[in-house]
Each structure stands twice: as structure tokens, then as C-alpha cells.
Queue: 4 jobs
Job 1
Amino acid sequence: MEVNNPRYQNQGIHVVSAIFTVDKGITKVLIIKRKNEPFKGEWSLVSGALYNDEEVMTGMQREIKEKAGIENIHLELFDIFSNPKRSPLMRMVAICYLGIVDKDKYKILKDTLKTSDADWHPIEQIPKLAYDHNEILNKAIDKLKERIKESDLLSHLYPTGFTMPEIQKVYESILNIEFDRRNFRKKILSTGLITETNRMEKFDGNKPAKIYVFKDSQDVKNVF
Amino acid sequence: MEVNNPRYQNQGIHVVSAIFTVDKGITKVLIIKRKNEPFKGEWSLVSGALYNDEEVMTGMQREIKEKAGIENIHLELFDIFSNPKRSPLMRMVAICYLGIVDKDKYKILKDTLKTSDADWHPIEQIPKLAYDHNEILNKAIDKLKERIKESDLLSHLYPTGFTMPEIQKVYESILNIEFDRRNFRKKILSTGLITETNRMEKFDGNKPAKIYVFKDSQDVKNVF
DNA sequence: CCAAAAGTGTTAGTCGTACACCCATGT
DNA sequence: ACATGGGTGTACGACTAACACTTTTGG
């Protein structure tokens, strides 16, 4: 390969992330408003250009910190978007990641050097986004559904533990189906992914629920 | 984003493919010998640099045609390798695909402008490869195992149909486990992925086997 | 003691697994 | 007729799905 061949010049790489949370039964995604061109003033996913001396994951985490103020997010690659015209300035290939986090653990910086209005938006009410980010987000939502069924992805939503009713509502919210309480409990326990603690949730007028945590395991037994 | 910021300059994209086949119960991968620098004379996966005006998948297919003479391979993205030093000439991010094909349907061009000795090699006996291709291949093998369990990926190995004993041997070869003939048949039929034809295989001294084909379906029910 | 939500157990049906016999072919 | 490998059915155990009552708390 000849380094100066124009065919290989002027390529850039975007890192793009769809970061989800679940808030009172509503699945939401983190979006921001851009302060700079291109797409100045428009909504977008958390994203930016990769530097030429960093790993893709490193660049993604850097962008998330710069544009939303949060760090060390667990992310999974889910797709590439590479239409040569997807960015108006130059050719940018988008490498796309998804993650899910506890919104109360990560404090979003609403306003940064390059962004404003960073916040969680219900995935059913997403405005028009910059670039091809609406398309990317739709794909991310599909992948999120697949991944929570076949992995312990949700451990990152509940780093400090969860109750059975809580996590059941999350599965129901993301997958749009309902489960029997008793069978749900049996099924998720049978995967071996989670384990109970001796902690109890705070009371609010009814029977307190036991708190469970995800084990540190990479077992890939399907959940549903 | 400022297009001329040196942080974003001198980035390139490699497309890399691990193309598998199964030959008499042996899982093999297509590798080639490079005629040019870097890594002149060394083995590598089928790969090359993306042009700045093409989609990633288009570039991948072009490279496969240029370097192995075959076209229209079904490929799935499985990982990104982005160590800034993975290529000696300039920073190249590797976008990696895997596929599996019928080796009798695709005639490999052993010798091309840029490559020689293109051929199928058993995955248990892979030489040292250029770049980080050994690492990429190992990841591809892991992903291949996952994918044949949860998708109709193998339909691309048998575009014209297969017999039960044939496909059973393929699953056994890739997954390194053995199945009971009768239960294997029931399980793969129960997925609804395949359907029988009225064709029979050619005889060779024993009872001829029925030929089955994969249906055109995107159902994601797990196979095993 | 009442309302609200959590926790538990049993039964029926379905699915997976183990296993043995018959069938179609070429020689 | 025999050797080779393909095709089928059944019975048992494991898992899944449906379902109702009891428990703990705050008010």
C-alpha cells in the first residue's frame, strides 16, 4: 500500500455511542445538543472524531467524557456506518457502540465546551438527530434488546444491586413483554448470573424487597 | 471539527476478513501470501485498505475479489482492532468480518497481482500471519462458534442444500462436540430454519440422504 | 386492621435426551 | 445377502408455564 495514494487520503473515523438507561420503567437514551458546525444547534448522539494515536475504545470514552462528563462506561461495538456522504465535511466512518448505565450513578454534565442540554430522552420520543444518528439509534435499540437477552449487560445498569421487581420492570420495558413474577424470579436465578445479598431496599409502605447483584461471570447462558 | 487538525490526519482503515469453509469435517480459513510490502512474502488474512469513496462492506468485497478472486460473500462484522501501532506504515484501524462459504462453489484465484498461494488452511494449523491477523483470526473463530449456534449463518456454506449427516458433521467440527443423529435432526428441524426438498444426494453404496435447504428467514431462535 | 407489594410452591404440559430397530442402496 | 449409512419412534427426566395464597411493611 502506498501511503500517499489519494484513494486512502482524507478518511476519518467517528466514534458514536448510544448510552441507555431505564428510568421508572421508561427506556431512555443520552443525547446532546451540538454547539459547533456541522449540525450546530442540532441534537445528536454522544460522538466525535477519533484521534490518530488512540484506540477506538479510548477515543469513544474520551468523547463521552468531553461531551457528557461521564467516564468508564461499559460499551459494546454493534455496527459500522460508512456511507461516504454521511458527514458533510469529509469522509467519516462511524464506529458505533451501545451501553446501559445507572442514571443516578453518573451525573451528566449538561453543558460542556462543545455541547449543551445533554439529557436522557425516552426512546419513543427522539427528535431529529444530526448525521445518520437516528438510523444508528434505531439499530442500537434492536441490538440492546438482543443483548439483554443473551448477556449480563444489565449488570452495568445496576452496579450496586437491584430488587427483583425492579429488574423485572427493566426487562419488560426494554423487551415490551410482561413476565409472571414467580417464573421471572425462577428463570433469572437459574441463569446463575445473579446472587442475593443480605441487604433490603428502603421501605415505602409495603414489604421490603431483597437486593440482588450480578456476579462477576462471563457465562453466556441465555436469559430469555 | 476542524478538518485540518493534525489529530485527525493520517488515519486509514483496513478491511479484514476471516472466510471459513468446512472440508471433510475440517474447519478451514482462507489465507494468502503477500507479494508486497509491508509483510512481503508473509501469510495474511484477506484484507486491504478501504478507499475513501466506498462503503466498508463494498471495500471488503472488492478486496476479497482482488486478492482471492471470489465475489458476493456473506459477511458479518465481528470486531475492530485499533492499536495505533498495528500497521508499520501508518495508523490503520482494522474493521473485521467473518463469513463461511462452500469451497466447491467459489473457485479461489491462487495467484493475483498482489497475492499468491491463496488457499484453505485448517484452523488448527495456522502459520504466523502478518499484522495482528493471528489475534484477529482467533477472535473470528470464537465468534463463528457463537454465530452458528444462534443464526442461519451456515446457509451460506450450503447455498444449494445439504443432507442431515453433512450438516451435523459441520456443527460437530466447528463446535467440537458430538450429537445424537436422531436428536440432531429433531432439533434443527424444530428451529424452523430449514426445510426438506424432494432431491436426494448421489449414492455411494448406502442409503441416499434427503437434501434440505435453509429457508429465507431471519428468525433468531437458537439452534443449540 | 387494611392496603400495597414481595415472597413462595405445586401441577400440567412441553421439550430435550437417551436409546434400538428398520430401510435403501451398491456390491 | 451383506455391509454401509440413513431414517424413524418411544419413554423418561428436566425444564417451562400457569396459577393462588401468605408475609411484611406503613399508615
Job 2
Amino acid sequence: MNKDQKTEARILEAAIEIFQQKGFAATRMQDIADRASINKAMLHYYFRSKQKLFDRVFQYAIQQFFPGIVAIISGNGSAEAKIRQLVEFYLDMLQKNPRLPGFIIHEIQQNEEHFLETVVRKNPFQPARIITRFVEELQAELNLQGVSELDARQLFVSLIAMIVFPFVARPMVMGLFELDSEAFEKMMSARKTFIPLLFARLLQGQAENKDAEGGE
Amino acid sequence: MNKDQKTEARILEAAIEIFQQKGFAATRMQDIADRASINKAMLHYYFRSKQKLFDRVFQYAIQQFFPGIVAIISGNGSAEAKIRQLVEFYLDMLQKNPRLPGFIIHEIQQNEEHFLETVVRKNPFQPARIITRFVEELQAELNLQGVSELDARQLFVSLIAMIVFPFVARPMVMGLFELDSEAFEKMMSARKTFIPLLFARLLQGQAENKDAEGGE
DNA sequence: TACCAAATTAACTATTTGGTTAATATGATT
DNA sequence: AATCATATTAACCAAATAGTTAATTTGGTA
């Protein structure tokens, strides 16, 4: 029962690795078995089917990705503090799991309805509610600082985009900026200060100057 | 030779649709044939193999996505004007082809080396060079405006992220903000003014106030 | 109309791949 | 040591799927 645990864990680890890299459809059970240095039949012995094994991996990924946001933005503190926490927490986590968001995004698209049902609607944490509340906080802060022309919802999407996108598009970013893995990591570390700085600049008071230059 | 063209075009159209939605691995030749209302053998008659058909679709996608950036940022005009053009051009294009970036990103990851070789290194337009040049322009602009603490490369990545990410993560965005397709489209349209506004705020002069508040 | 090349189809083949099974190894317990 | 449940393996099976082929249709041309 000890070696049992070990084998099951090895399989899961290998499955995470390969499913996250290649996605459900391109993954072969044999690839997973090879990576775990184990007979293919063991995958079925422990997890019944490819779909069930995948489900475990996917659920684990979701668990790794979403609760963090919810916890941080529903906490106490200023909007700006929460933004700093989000950036810190997610950039750290994504540096350790760079393929996580791409995997989640791709698989959600393969089965959009399943995601909406389980992660959004049936979720007792009601992420949609919590996000709405945070966006309202953020909008209040923007209004207070005299930058009410900026829509908080758009800004929130932009924040997540700035954090997550470089990892989703990692090969593209590395290619177009001619970075190796090390340089990419450095760039992402630097982002931990860049993004909060950018937001500080955006939120930074213009309170007395209530009307901005007229746009087109 | 007329009906010929028509059939070949129908196949390509169907292939684009399905490959972009499901990716190479999850796509079945039969699905494409069904969508084109045509016998599966015709796919091989016109395109030889799944891989060759896919290559056409992928190349077309790359052609649709990358030259725009290169053309815009290597043009004349201020950095800010180029940013406005990028936003306008890409948001329009992505509203018409919302699955394009997710497709490209996912398939690049499946064959990273092939992408680096063909799109980045062997590309006569030398996108890496052109991007570097634009980043330098942008940095100059930032320095001029007294916001030199903001790194232009990070800012450029952020710009692309803000434009592209919502489409890559479309189902997630729609789910978490409880939007239907129409509401999502509206949000993306609004983004055409939001992003330039955000950048205007960032770039907007602080030229006289050369030293910013000290960080933590 | 007769003919012919190109287009199209139904049926087939070969291969890949998820899943099963029957036989064997392992290691704890009596 | 003998026993027994559990873990592991090699060999196998069945379904799915890319790709082929041989026969048929189509539509223009002599």
C-alpha cells in the first residue's frame, strides 16, 4: 500500500506533465506510461480510463488556478493592495507552472459548457459575484482618484491579461524577444514590480483635476 | 475548373473553421468533410494529407495575424499613434476571428521549434528586429514623458496582452462576467477606446516632475 | 453523339490507440 | 514456508481514423 501510493502518484505526475503540455486529444496513454516508466495497463488499473485520468488532472489544475483569485479579491484591504497581492501570488505560481493557464484555457474551449456548469455556476464560492464586487470596489477607487473615465471591469480584465498572457504565449514572447528560458524567467520576475508600478501610476491621484482632456 | 475551385475553397473554409476550434489533434478529417458536405476522399484528392491541409490552415492564420503588427509598428508616427493603430486594427480583426490567437498559440506550443524556425528566424521581415526597434522608440517616449521607470518592453507585452488575451480566454471571460456573445462583443468594442485611454494616461506628461515617489 | 479528362463517391485497408485479460510477481500475514 | 490479496506485465482486442482504390459521374470538346 506504500508502493501503491507511489505508483499512483507517479502516474498522476506524468499525466499532469503530458496533458498540460499536449492537451487531451494529442496525449497518448502510452506517453504517460512511458514518462512514469510503467506498464500502460497500470493507468487503467488506477484510473479506469483516459477521460477519468484527465478529469483528475483538469480538476487539479482548476483548483490550483482559481481559488487564489477568489481568496485575494474577497479579502480586506484597498483595491491597490489586492492588485499587488494578485500580481505577486500569480506570477510566483505561474513561474512554477508556466503551462497551467494555456492548458486550462485550451481545455475549457473544448468543453465550454462543462466549464460554465462546474466552475462558474455550481461553484459555491460564486466567483462571478465576488468578481463583480471587486470590480465595484475598484471603480470606486478610480472615481475617488478622478480617473472615472477608466472602466474598472476593463481594467480588471487587463490586469489578469498582463499577468497571465505572457505565460500563455510563452513561446511567442520568447521567439519575438529572442529570449532563452532564463531570460524569460527574469522578465517575469521583473513583471512583479512592473505591473504594480503601472497600476500605481494609473490610480495615482488626479483628484483635484476632475475633468480630463476631451477625447475624440 | 470552376467547380474545382469551389470545392477546394469549401474544404479550406471548413478546415479553417474546425482546426481553429478544436486544434490539430482533436480534429477528424470526417468532421471537415461533413462540414464541407463532401466526401472525405476529396480532402486527400486536393490536399494529400491531414498534415498538409493543416499546414495550409496554419500558414494562413499566421499570415493573418503577424504581418499587421510588423506593418504598423515599423511605420511612421508617434509611439502613441502606433498603439492606437494596433488596438484598432487587432480588435477589429479579432472580433471577426475570435479563435485565431488561441489556435495559433496552442499550435505553436505543439511545435515550438517549427514556429521559431519559420516565423521568427527564417522570416525576411525580421519581426524580432522590428519589435526591438519599436520598443526603443517607446522607451524614448517614456523617458521624454518622465516615466522612465516603466520598462517599454514590459509595456509592449502588456499592450499585446490587453488586446489579445480576452479572445484567448473568451469562454472564461464570458463565464466570470456572465456575458453572452453579444455583451462580449460590446465589451471588446469598448476596449478600442479603453486601451488607448489607459495608455494616454500612462504616457501623459510628468516631464517636469522627474523623480517619482520611492517604492517599497 | 462519342469521347475523355477531371471530379466524386462508396467501399476498403492499414495503423494507431484506448482498453482488456490472463498469467505472473510481490510482499505482507498466518 | 504456505497462502492470499494486491500490483504488475505482456499479449491481445476492438474501435476509431487517416489514407487508398477502383468504379462512377460530370461536363466540356471533337
Job 3
Amino acid sequence: MLDDRKLEVLRAIVEDFVSTTEPVGSKALAERHSLGVSPATVRNDMAALEDEGYITHPHTSAGRIPTDKGYRLFVDQLSTVKPLSPPERRAIQSFLEGAVDLDDVVRRSVRLLAQLTRQVAVVQYPSLSRSSVRHLEIVHLAPNRLLLVLITDTGRVEQRVVELPATLSDDDVGLLRQVFGARLHGAPLVDVPSALSDLPDAAPPAIRPVLTSVMTVVLESLVEQPEERIALAGTANLTRHSLDFPQTIRPVLEALEEQVVLLKLLGEVNDPTTVHVKIGEENNVEGLRSTSVVTMGYGPDGSAYGGLGVVGPTRMDYAGNMGQVRAVARYVGELLAGA
Amino acid sequence: MLDDRKLEVLRAIVEDFVSTTEPVGSKALAERHSLGVSPATVRNDMAALEDEGYITHPHTSAGRIPTDKGYRLFVDQLSTVKPLSPPERRAIQSFLEGAVDLDDVVRRSVRLLAQLTRQVAVVQYPSLSRSSVRHLEIVHLAPNRLLLVLITDTGRVEQRVVELPATLSDDDVGLLRQVFGARLHGAPLVDVPSALSDLPDAAPPAIRPVLTSVMTVVLESLVEQPEERIALAGTANLTRHSLDFPQTIRPVLEALEEQVVLLKLLGEVNDPTTVHVKIGEENNVEGLRSTSVVTMGYGPDGSAYGGLGVVGPTRMDYAGNMGQVRAVARYVGELLAGA
DNA sequence: ACTTGGCACTCAGGAGTCGGGAGTGCCAGA
DNA sequence: TCTGGCACTCCCGACTCCTGAGTGCCAAGT
């Protein structure tokens, strides 16, 4: 159905359209890319590609532009992820190396990604559900009030205030600290429930009620409904080509403000070790139907702490952006694994 | 120079223009507002107002629109801050009351503010420099590595990793904890330097070098260059009226991505207990010259933890937005003071 | 001294017209 | 299977025309 030359024509169309933003015609295409055939032949190939749904034209006397399906074919078969240029690599390193804590890492990464790709960048904080407990601190705020501070191996810090059913002495708090510390230190968050399951029985009766409320808070807010966090940058990049979005960038901005939407985008990744691309209508998110999303998981050796990626017009430099997303994901993964 | 009727005309122009987004002409104005005079008279007044620089017209045969100076006069003398409607009050309460921690409070507030005002909302986290130490936790990560966790009275949690010049036993860490805890508990962050000044001398020689590095980190990263944080929401609101911004919303989005810019906006508030408005060119920030900014400080009884506000087109409902910003600022202030 | 109606003037913006040019589809010949 | 030729389509920019909202100013009225 599609011989090599037709594929070559498709590639040329995608590349030209991506770089010029203008529908590309048979003549210009035959000239610019040395295909060795005449415009007429290119026209025939174009007609075939259009029949198959890979390209369209906005109106009769205009050139062709790729469809979502065309981009999909391009991404899957016609392009290879572009490795970064040395200056880009240097930029990543110098940008990320000064980070002082997790917040800093995430904020720097997201800005970096936005700058590199010139798209909107999204970085998810390391998911609590895939982290382990590094430390659980219990601070005695008031006789009947505790502050729990959970610190994970990835550097996330989560805090919750616990109102107690009874007042507590400092010694009691020390006891609590010991009990929880011993059981939780180093445990993956998902294992916390089982690690704590026999706790009420094992503890001295005096502090049982208190212990139970602390347990409840720990389990509920840190394990069952762990809070996901996300950083966003580069929204101004959406305005670079007003042509890229049918009406306005409104729906896109709205979608990007929804944490849930972003989590969904980053979460739909099955294999965290490779770059994923969702093109146009492939996005299940209303409002992002005219955008493409490039994502990848990051984390140590193939497992994933979380995801990151970029959102841009379907008319984007896939090869380049995929390379950039992959590179940043790897750097961030290493950085956090080493922390 | 400007008699009462002229002021009334200005008010009418501002109100009509704000609600319709269209230049307002003498006839429509005379009809809609019962000024009791003819369009011709209104025209004369308009000419006077234009001479004084309070209004302009985009072209000869168009109606008048307010200038920045006109809005300024309107805000200063012709409008009163609009108190919230009962449903709005309820919305605020129900929106904020479920917050579990500081992050949650800030995120909810910023979304709330964006929804209420239908503008871009900005909320600054309670500034470290105006907070006190509630607790400083020292976690022993590795023999030569500590994690400092600072918890402030406003609920902020800041962490830093300290690499030590020597290895440390758990007992040493306990000692550190005691020493710092005793001196810092309850101290305003600005007083921390003096509270720690005699520390090296007072401490046992064995842990002095370690103590010094910890001190350095505390002072540098928590006191001298305290990290300011800011939350943003509602950027999609910028697109509601494309007419509002000369070219595109690009420069506005860019400005809003700069933390520094936002801090500057919120920081220029001298008296934290009242609402402040910066109109158009009054903004020193390149990129926000076509926007107005409504800000207020929040905090307990007149002092300020931080600032919050909204950014929108100069054509905004000043009275309403000022009321909304004020209300949210007060609620947030109370909420954090009680925490 | 204001206010008012009248009137000539201005000018943005929409509707209609037109021609150029880029691009297409198709066909017949190599 | 490719290619050159050719008729056809139709977007887009330029041009013109026209309408209507709105103004500025003047002279008369109160």
C-alpha cells in the first residue's frame, strides 16, 4: 500500500510542516527534498496518502498537512529519537546540579524542560505510593496535638496535624516515636499498613487510643490517599503560534490547571523506561485534543518514581522533544536515586 | 475643574465599559444612567474629562474608554469596596475549612480566589522571615549526613541536607538536637542569628565543627536567603476577553511565570491591612503594563505573613475584586493564625 | 453661564468585487 | 510507472463603497 517513497513523502511533509507551519505543496516538496521525482509523481503519492488518511488539505488549493494518523506513523516508523546536543547536555547538568532539595529539583527540572523543548512542561513529584519511609518525625505541638512529618527516600516531606483524644506527656510522645520509628524506618509506603497492623496489640495499653488516632492519620492521608503533586512551567510557550490552536488556548490552559488531568496524562504510562507520545485525538482529555503529549517515567533503573513530560501543538518537533524529555527524565531519575 | 456631574459621568463610563467591553458613547450613557441631562451636555463633560486625561477614544468616531488615570480616580474616589454576598462568604468558608495543612490552605485559597474574581490569582506562602520556629528537627541520615527540618508557626516545612566534616554518633545528634532545640524553639526567624551567636563557645568542643556546619546551613538557607514560595491559579481567565490585551497574553503569562515578579507585586505592599491596587502603567513590571493588580497582605491582626492578590485586565471590576481579595486575605489570615 | 438641539464631519468595519497565484486532479504520452 | 501539460478551484489580499455610531462645535434657549 505504502511503498518507501510514499513514506518518504510523508516524512517530508511532516518535517516541512513542522518547521514552516504552512501547508506544503507538491512542488516545494519535490524541490526541497531531493526525492528524484517530479512534482506530478509527488502529487500522486500525496493523493494515495490522503486516501489512507495520513494527510489532508484545509481547502482545495492549499498544500497538505499531516493528520493525527500521519503524525502517528511518523513517530512510530519514520523518526528516531534525537539525542541531545552537547550544549543541551551541559545545560541540563548545570541547571540541575545546584538543587538543594526535592522542591528545588522539581522546579528546576520543569523550567529546564520548558526551556529546552519550548513547550509546556509538566513534572510530577515522586509518588508517595512508590516511595519508602526515610523518617517519621512526631512533634509535640500541644498536649493534645501532634504534628507528623513524613520524610521519604525521595526527599518528599509531608505533614499532618493530629488532634488527640487525650493529653500526652513528652515521654509518651517519645514512646510513640520509638514504636513508629522502629516499624516504619525504611519500609515502602505500600507496606506500611501491614507493618502497623499488629501495633495496637503490641503497645502498652496506656497509649493505645492515642496510637490508634496517629495510625489512622498515617494510614488515611499518607497511604490510602497519598497526595500527588505536580509542577508546571512554560505555559507562555502555548502562545508562540496562535495558528496551532483552533480557537484559543483557553481549553488547553484550563486542562493544564487540573491536577487530575495532568496526573492522568503522566499516569497512563505503562513502561516507564521509554518515551511515550499521545497525538491529538488520542488524548482522552477534553481540551487537549489539539495537542500532543510526550511523557516518560523517571526513577532508578526502570522503575518509576513519577512521570514528566511536555504538552504542545500536534505540530511539534517529535524527534527533538522526545529526546529532550528522555534526557531530562534520566537525569532527574539519577539525581533522585542518588539523593 | 471636575464638578460632581463630571465625576458621575466618569463613573458611568467606567462602569459601562467594564461591563460591556465596548467604548461608551454620549447617547447611550445619557440614556442608561439617569443623569438628567442631554447627550450634548454629556459630550461637553466628556471633552473636559478627556482634556484632563481621564478618558480617551480609540478613534474619532468611537465612544470613550477610561485611561489608567481614569481608573485610578475611579478606584480612589468613586467606588467603595464591595462586601461579599452571602453565597460568596459561604463559598469561602466551605472551600477553606477542609484544608489539612499549609500547602492545602494555600492551594485552596488560590483556586478560590481565581474562581471568585475570575482573574489570575496569586498567593504567597507565609514568608519565612516573618515566622517563628516551631520546631527544628535533626534527622541522622548517614554517619556524616544530616537532614534539617524546620517547621514554622505558620506550618511551613523547610528541609536541607547537611554534609558533615566528620562522622557523628547518634548521641552526638541527640546533643545537637538539644542545643538547637533549646535556643530556637519559639524564636522568630529573624532573631535566630543572635540566638545562635554564642553557640560555638558554649558547646562541648567535641561537636564544635559539626555544630558550625549545621549553623552555617541554618543561617544561610533559612535565614539569610529564605526561600519564598508562591502559588498561582486561573491563568485560563486571561483568555476570557482577547480584546483586553493589546497583542496577546504572551507577555503576561511570561511575567506570571517569574517568581521574582510575583514577589515584587505582592511585596510592594506597605500597609498590609488594606487592599492595594496598581493600575496599568503603574506596574513597574514589564509585561504587566496592560494589567491591573489587586493585592493585600494577610496575617494575624494587621501584621503580615505574606501577600495575595489577583492580576487581570485594567478593565476589571475593581470594587468587586477588591472586596473578594480582602475577604480571602482575612479568612486566610485567621485560618493561619489559628493553626 | 450652562444647557440643548442641530448639523456637518470623521472614520472603523462590514459587504461586495476582483485578480493573482499556489496548488490540485486528471489525462495522455513516454 | 513516471512525467509534463492543462484546466480548474479557491484562498487571500487589495480595493472600493457605504453605513452608522459618535464626535465637535455653534447658535439659540433658559
Job 4
Amino acid sequence: MKKKIVDIARDLNLSPSTISKIVNNKGRISSETRERVLKYVKECGYLAMSNARILSSKKSWTIGIIYSDISLIGFEHPFFSRIFQSFKDYVAQRGYDVVMIVSKLGYNELTYLEWCENKKVDGILIVMGNINNPNIIEVVNSSFPCISTDIVMPNLHSVICDDKQGVILAIDYAIKLGFSKIMMVTGPKTARSFYVRTEFFEEEMKKRNISYNEGDIITTDGFGFSSGFNAGQEIAKRKNLPELIIVNSDVIAYGVIRGLNSMDLDVPNDISVIGYDDIEFSQNFTPSLTTILQDTKLIGEKAAEALLLAINQKLQKKQKITYLPVSLIERESTKKKN
Amino acid sequence: MKKKIVDIARDLNLSPSTISKIVNNKGRISSETRERVLKYVKECGYLAMSNARILSSKKSWTIGIIYSDISLIGFEHPFFSRIFQSFKDYVAQRGYDVVMIVSKLGYNELTYLEWCENKKVDGILIVMGNINNPNIIEVVNSSFPCISTDIVMPNLHSVICDDKQGVILAIDYAIKLGFSKIMMVTGPKTARSFYVRTEFFEEEMKKRNISYNEGDIITTDGFGFSSGFNAGQEIAKRKNLPELIIVNSDVIAYGVIRGLNSMDLDVPNDISVIGYDDIEFSQNFTPSLTTILQDTKLIGEKAAEALLLAINQKLQKKQKITYLPVSLIERESTKKKN
DNA sequence: TTGTAAGCGTTATCAA
DNA sequence: TTGATAACGCTTACAA
């Protein structure tokens, strides 16, 4: 049977509170007894029972995770899965457990906030969420420290990739290849990333005096392959073909390529294509996809770091965005002019 | 401020223990007070503080999840992610929270078992694990109820898809298409599923009197695209080409197809290919992949159901395997003979 | 520097 | 049918 704190205390002829102070690194204790206790504690592998500890202290050493939401993708999206994984590893190293927040627990319908209060979580990670979800809004505006690796909204600290840099990398790369007839295909603008990337596209194209018109930005009505396929076919029908297409998602990009193929246009020989995300299959597509890589591991770590900071320093909540760098991976779907 | 049980008791002029009994559906209470309490409890949204409850009772309403392991894939593997998601939803409906089990919590290296004891979890799901991991072996042989959706071992109840049926479906489909020169490409046999599928392949081929020899089963040395690519090239070099190849993983299958392509062999015109898993991209490959679909949602639900049963009935631990049906999805990578 | 005692919010036992 | 009271195992004022 595992020893409790009273057992340790008895064995060492000390009081439980002394043990507690030592293992939690609080109060002033003679270095002699401190070492004696630490040694013994290590020997018998003592660890304070999680629930008793949480009950009697303010801290729970637990972080609640809001994943999935209205969108049905949830855990199946490798982009967010990776972020979650790296976040989890980072906080685990520092003693935090990670619990999935659910809004229905048994017969009770709970708001996220109620759930968090009930569990006394120390902080909350929104891996993936929806800014219009009242449940999320409530949590963000509560006193719980929060961090997001997806949504951006008032009162919330978000750790996300630098979409502006991504677009710039893509455009400059296109220029370097010798192209000036550049298009963008983007997913639904309800998603923040798709929205801002088109904004930056227009901005940067103007800045570089590259002409383009409205029709050079196509917004698909879905997130998947087939949306891209349709866009690809539509592009192929135009009399004035682009030389290069920047697509704001690898999945859609792959659809675009096949759509072009279906109209007898080759990538990259007729048209070059740049994707976004670098999903696992991007290197296995035919052609393999030149794309903008987002470092999901880094996102998870930085988010974890920021959240733990907020937890420990009781920082005032305010909107903040931490941008992380992206990079361009050169593969076969793009090719120099001529 | 949320009401505690004492607040409720005071408001209603009852004792905390009475309230407790009612919300937990225990003891004999007059239906009159029961209803009065239930009504009030619902009104003010009272919910017992999780940690206090766990501390004073035997049950924690928490299930620990062992995910990822020696293999580095972890959450990035959509197959397991989906299982986890559906498991989580099922148990949440019945009042259980789900916590990731980590083996390092702060400065303490914990075994899985120690962690589970510390958290007093009610049961454990092994989404993905390794049978050689001492940590896992220890947990499986402990008194904690366990369920696995991946590994199979003594003392453990596993809920997995029927690999035999999958192989039979593939072979019979090949026969239906008119083929008799059938090969199998499999991933490393250290993985249970790859191992048993090759076993079943040999068994069923013999049973049907379809001739094949050793060389007709290729074992790749990796799980990825490139492993398949190499296998595809190797096959293409043979003088005696197969008519159909059963590949035990979609990812590898895609590699095989490209490997064949690289040697000027077309799929399905020269050779048909059947995959396994039905990953998201299987319908978007060129050609789209005929494959064996595993119902991940069902796996998660059945595993959850079985685990909750084990928890509530304190069943004796023993090895057991629950097989779930698979199905064949017909797409473009296969084609009738001639 | 160490110990005492109260308290965290429940549930469980037993008595009324 | 209900209510006292003692756990549950820990932390934390406060006292020594």
C-alpha cells in the first residue's frame, strides 16, 4: 500500500505539515531535515494524492482542453492533434495534467465554464474553437487563464503562425521563379486564417505593383479536396491562365491540381501551385507539393509556455497575439518560368 | 458563487447527507423530499465539487487514457484519434471525464500504474500501446479495469476489427474480379495487425487453392509512403507480375502505386491494388483507393461500453477479444480482369 | 524551525 | 426517512 503523508511523518518522527512544506518547497525548513525527508520520500516514491491536494489547496495542476467544436473534424485534424500533443508534453514536464473539457457530463449539461469551476482547472487551452460559441466566449471572459492556438478574440492570448509572412514567402517565391500572373485560392473566409491570408495577399500584391483583379482570388465553399477540384476546373476554363496559384491549404491545393489535370493542364509544367500547412501527404502527392510549413510542435510549446506564465503570474487578461515564423518547403509543384 | 452542498442543505432545511444521497441516488428517501431537492438542485445548477467527491468516495468518474507510446505517431494518427474521440463522447455521456496518462509529471517519473493510483482512475483505455512496454504490462496486470483498441495480450480485453474478415473480403473481391495472381504487401510484422493479416492471407489462399509462393508476400521495413514505393518498384521488376496486390495499409498502398507508376505500370490497368484502413485521402488519391474500411467510431463506442461494464461489475480480468466487422470500399484502384 | 489544528466539500456509517 | 459525525488526505494559518 502506498504511504500517505501521515505515514511518512510518523516514520520520520515529524509532523505532516513539515513534510508537506518540504515536498511543496514552501516555508523555512532546516536543510538537514529537508534532505532527510526528500531522501525518504524518494525512497518510498511518495506522491501526494492528487484529489486531496486539489481539495485543500488553490491549485489543481490540471489544464482543461477545449478541442473540437461546431466543426466536426475534432481530433482527426492532424494539424491540431500535433499542437495538442506537443502542448501536453510541455506541461506534463512541469507537473500539469491535461483533461478534455466536455460540455455534457452524465445527465448534466454543463457550460465549459461550469465544468472548469467544478474541476478547478488552473488554466485552459483552446486548441480549436469557434469565436461564436457562447460557451467559449464565456470561458475567455472568465477569470481562468486561457490560451488559444486557433481563434483570435478580445481578452484572449493567441499563439499562431505568422500568416503575413507565409503569404509574403509565397509571393516572393513566385516572383523569384519569374512569374507575375499569380492567383490565390482560399478556403471559406469564416476561418480566420483564410480570411487574413487573402487580405495579406491583396496588400502584398499591391505593394509589389503586381497587377491582379477580383477574379484572381477564388474562395471555395468548402475545406476539402472537392472544393479545390472545382476551383481548379474553373481556373482551367479561363482564357487568361495564371502562371502560379497560391492555395491556402494543402488539401484544397491537391484538389486544385487534380482539377487542373482533369482539364489537361499539367502542374508544374503549365501552372505552378503552392500549398499551405505541409500536411503529411504533401511530400507524397504527385507532384509533391511546394508549401508553407507551420511548425505545430513550436506552436504547442509556445502556447504551453505562455499559459503557464499566465497561471503563475496571474496576469491581467487582454488580447494578445504571438506570431510564430513559417517557412517555405520547395518541392515539385512549382517550377521556374520557361 | 456556486452553492456547495451545505448551502443547498441549509436552504432546504435538510442535512448535507440527505442531499448527497438524493443526488447520488442512494439510500431511502421519501419521494416528496427527493423531488423537492432535485428541483432545487436543478434550479441552482448544483454539482458536487469533483475533487471533494473523489476524495471521500471510491469512485473518481475519471478514465485514464494511454495514448502514443514508443512509436512517435501518437495523436497524429487519424485512425487512433477517431477512436479516442468516439470513446470520449460515449463515456462523457455517462458522466466520465477523460485524462491523458503521462509517465512524467513534473520532477517525478511515474509509472502508468502509479499515476493511475494517484488519480484513482476508475478505468483505463489503451488507445495505442506497445506490448513490450513494462509500464503497460504492469497496468494490464493490475486490478484496474482496462480496455485496449490496439494491443492484444493476456489479461486484457481488446476491441479490434476483424482482420480475418478484412483479408477474406479482399481475397474474395480479387477472385470476383477474375484474378488469381495475388500478392500481399504488409508493414512490419511487429505490429499485430500486419502480422495477423499475413497469417490470414496464407491461410485463406491455401483454403481457396490459389497458388502463391513466399515471394508473394513482401514485408516493408517501415510504415510510410516510401516503404511502399520501394515495394512497388521491386514488384515491377519481377518477370511474373501479379494481377492484384493487397496492401495492409492505405499509406503504404499509395506508395506501392507510385512505385509501380515509376516503373511504367498503371494502376488499375496493369495491376489492381487494394488498401487497408480507408484514411481520409484514400478517396482523393489518383486513382482513388479500393480499401478495407475499419469503423473507428464503432471501435471507440464498443470499447467504452465494455470498459464501463468492467468498471461497474468488477469483472475478473482475463484475455478477451471483441471483433468488429470491416467492409470493402470499391473505388478506382481495382478493375475487372480484361 | 517545527507542530497543532482547522478546513477543503464530499460521502459513508451509524444512530435517531 | 433523516441527521450527526467521522472519515477522505492534504495544505495552511497560526502557535510554539
